[in-house]
Amino acid sequence: MSFKNITPKENGLLLNVEDKPSFGLNLILAAQHLLAALGGIIAVPLVVGGVLGLPAEQTIILVNASLLISGIVTFVQSKGIGAIGIRLPSVMGTSFTFVAAALAIGKSDAGVAGIMGASLVGSLVMIVGAFLMPYIRKYFPPVVTGCVVMSIGLSLISVAVDWFAGGNKADPSYATPSTLAMATFVLVIVVILVQWGKGIFSAAAIFFAMVVGYIASLCFGLVDFTNVKNAELFAVPTPFHFGLAFPISGIIGMSIAYLVTIVESNGNFLAIGQATHTQVTGEQVKRGVLCDGLGSALAACFSTLPFSSFSQNIGIISITRVASRYVVMVTGILLFLAGLFPVFGAVIVSIPSPVLGGAGVMMFAMIIVGGIQMLDRVSRSRRNGLIIAISVGACLAVTLRPEIFQHLPHWIGEIFSSGITTGSLMAIILDRVLPRDKEETVTDYAEVVAQMNK
Question: What is the pTM of this model?
Answer without folding.
Answer: 0.77
